[in-house]
Specification:
With 479 residues, this protein is α+β, with helices and mostly antiparallel strands. The protein folds into 5 domains: 32 residues, no CATH class; 89 residues, no CATH class; 68 residues, Immunoglobulins (Immunoglobulin-like), CATH 2.60.40; 88 residues, Immunoglobulin-like (Sandwich), CATH 2.60.40; 118 residues, Nuclear Transport Factor 2, Chain: A (Roll). It is built from 8 helices and 25 strands. A 5-stranded mixed sheet has the order 15-12-20-19-18. β13 and β14 form a beta hairpin. The longest helix is centred in the first third of the chain and has 27 residues. The termini are far apart.
């Protein structure tokens, strides 16, 4: 008996032939409903088909999945390494290291805000040479890049990506177009060994604006023919603006006085050697802006260099007249140049010390090693002998410095002449003695005698009241 209409699911009371809701013929449904009960005993139970067994993963798929897993691990390691190596701070450190070392290839670390500047390892060299010699400016560059503050000359910029993932940074510098000027027509001007082309102008003013360049330290050379004579000059210039580079060629006669047989360098190029007397004359030498000069020499087994005179051209303009104590002095139509040496005693310092020593033998504190110094002992013995000589009423000494040259670090070699005057009852005894190879040591700018030097009698004479040359015993020697 049906309880619900099989079509519309309307509840039934039982015995209905048709569904009161949808008029479905319920008799057919009752027969169908009774059929399985009548035939159920004669039918075999229905069997469920077994599920096919799960196939194992193929070897090929296992290999593919293993490769994918390995790649994920490798990529993770690579990404961790790259995030550190290509971090902002580490890239800045590599940029600074390259810019302070001209031996490194610096092109990949630099860019320019002017697209006309071609960035190559060669074009970056002037920038590297500048920072190599200007450590303070290198520190300022580091601050500008690490703080990302930047300035009008440089800033840190992103210029691409490494491996399409990590940002790539460069130090972007401002490009400049300086103008080269000279006072001679048909001059050949080179910048870092390469010709810049023809200068144009008239009268005594010729110029050319350079193509855009990176800032840095540049070397310029100029060659001109004046009155049938070829003149050349060099100038070193730090370019950090659209400045004018003055390559006017003026000529002056320079006399360099320094150490015997030393070598003279102007703008880091050898221009000549000093004589045995320590002099070199450069006649009609071309003078340009920002010239530098220094002297080097070999003293014992050491090669020493004087202090560098910078902006020599300005020093010539402001030179004192006939001042032997000045580094640069004017003397008639020539200039005398005396480069300074680090730790070298001046004429005044050497003269003051040796005058004290030859006044009475000197105090032991004025000698290196004090009472144990052999020169101190010899001088003490000599002056004790002067004082013990009853025939000498009194004596006087006068010291004249002949030359001072470097001997070693903080040591000076001094040649000098001492005139001894001994007053006797009826005559005056005069001795002129030359001392060579005296060594003075610089101890915190307090000079002391290490060796008094070898003595050689230049003159020995007696002077009576009647005649300056009477009873004289002279031994003149010009060695």
């Amino acid at each position: 008996m049906l309880k619900f209409c099989p079509k519309c699911r309307h509840p039934l009371n039982g015995g209905e032939k048709f569904c009161p809701n949808c008029q479905q013929d319920l008799r057919e449904c009752q027969e169908d409903n009774n059929q399985p009960a009548q035939s159920g005993r004669n039918q075999a139970p229905q069997q469920v088909a077994p599920r096919p067994p799960k196939r194992p993963m193929s070897k090929k798929n296992k290999i593919i999945l293993s490769i994918i897993g390995a790649l994920v691990v490798v990529f993770g390691i690579f990404y961790a390494w790259g995030s550190s190596y290509y971090s902002n701070s580490n890239q800045v450190n590599r940029i600074l290291s390259a810019l302070k070392d001209p031996k490194q290839a610096g092109g990949k670390y630099v860019s320019c805000d002017d697209p006309n500047v071609k960035i190559t390892d060669s074009s970056v060299k002037p920038l590297q040479n500048y920072y190599k010699n200007h450590s303070n400016q290198a520190d300022e560059l580091k601050y500008a890049l690490t703080s990302n503050a930047g300035n009008s000359d440089v800033q840190l910029v992103q210029s691409g990506h490494h491996f399409l993932i990590f940002p790539k940074y460069t130090a972007q510098f401002h490009g400049y177009t300086p103008k080269i000027e000279t006072n001679h027509a048909n001059s050949i001007v080179k910048m870092n060994g390469k010709s810049i082309g023809k200068l144009t102008g008239s009268s005594s003013h010729f110029s050319k604006e350079l193509d855009p360049v990176l800032p840095g330290h540049y070397e310029f050379s100029i060659k001109s023919k004046v009155a049938g004579r070829t003149l050349t000059a060099n100038a070193n210039t730090n370019i950090w603006s659209n400045q004018n580079v003055d390559l006017n060629i003026n000529t002056e006669t320079l006399v360099i006085k320094s150490v015997p047989n030393g070598t003279v360098y102007i703008n880091d190029k050898k221009v000549g050697s000093l004589s045995n007397k320590g002099e070199l004359t450069l006649s009609d030498y071309p003078i340009t802006k920002h010239m530098t000069l220094y002297v080097s020499g070999k003293f014992g087994k050491k090669e020493l260099q004087s202090k560098t005179i910078t902006d020599l051209d300005e020093g010539l303009e402001n030179a004192a007249t006939d001042d032997d104590s000045a580094i640069i002095s004017a003397s008639g139509k020539k200039y005398v140049i005396r480069p300074e040496w680090k730790g070298l005693a001046s004429n005044e310092e050497a003269g003051h010390l040796l005058s004290d020593v030859f006044e009475s033998g000197g105090e032991k504190s004025q000698y290196v090693g004090e009472a144990g110094n052999s020169s101190y002992l010899a001088m003490k013995k000599m002056f004790d002998g002067f004082r013990d000589d009853d025939s000498v009423n009194n004596f006087d000494t006068d010291v004249k410095i002949e030359s001072i040259t470097p001997y070693d670090t903080d040591e000076s070699q001094v040649n000098y002449v001492v005139t001894f005057t001994f007053e006797h009852d009826d005559y005056t005894h005069v001795q002129v003695i030359e001392y060579t190879g005296c060594i003075l040591k610089n101890v915190d700018r307090d000079f002391k005698v290490d060796k008094i030097g070898s003595a050689h009698v230049k003159q020995d004479k007696k002077v009576t009241g009647d005649s300056d040359d009477e009873d004289s015993d002279t031994n003149d020697d010009d060695d």
